[in-house]
Design a protein that fits this description.
122 residues; alpha+beta; three-stranded antiparallel β-sheet; 2 helices; globular
């Protein structure tokens, strides 16, 4: 029910760790619509909002949520795109996952987009 933009590191990080890239963009049905080869590159794809809305309409998974299994999800809202959470803000999902405000680059009423701000570097 969403597009997934999967970033991927590439290169040799240290003696024991190498990454091979293959960042990709995946449509709501799991079809890879853009993919990078090994090495430094970028992927570009068109996000079809009509297609996304059709999938959400035809398969209303939000109506099939099971808060009895994973708890309630709180809808956060922002007034404008410049209103990101403070650094000490914490978004919790699942029993142990937490995202701090300084990692959030965008959020809506039902999603939080965040980045790993401490990547492994050589």
């Amino acid at each position: 029910q969403c597009y997934v933009i999967a970033a991927a590191q590439t290169g040799k990080h240290n003696e024991k760790r190498s990454s091979y890239g293959h960042a990709m963009i995946v449509d709501p049905w799991g079809t890879i619509i853009a993919e990078c080869r090994e090495g430094i590159n970028f992927a570009l794809a068109e996000i079809d909002l009509d297609y996304l809305n059709k999938i959400r309409r035809d398969m209303p998974v939000m109506e099939q949520r099971r808060p009895d299994l994973y708890g309630n999800i709180t809808n956060y809202s922002i007034r404008n795109a410049d209103s990101l959470p403070a650094d000490d803000w914490i978004f919790e999902f699942g029993p142990t996952a937490k995202v701090r405000g300084h990692s959030v680059v965008n959020k809506t009423g039902s999603s939080v987009l965040f980045v790993n701000k401490k990547p492994v570097v050589p």
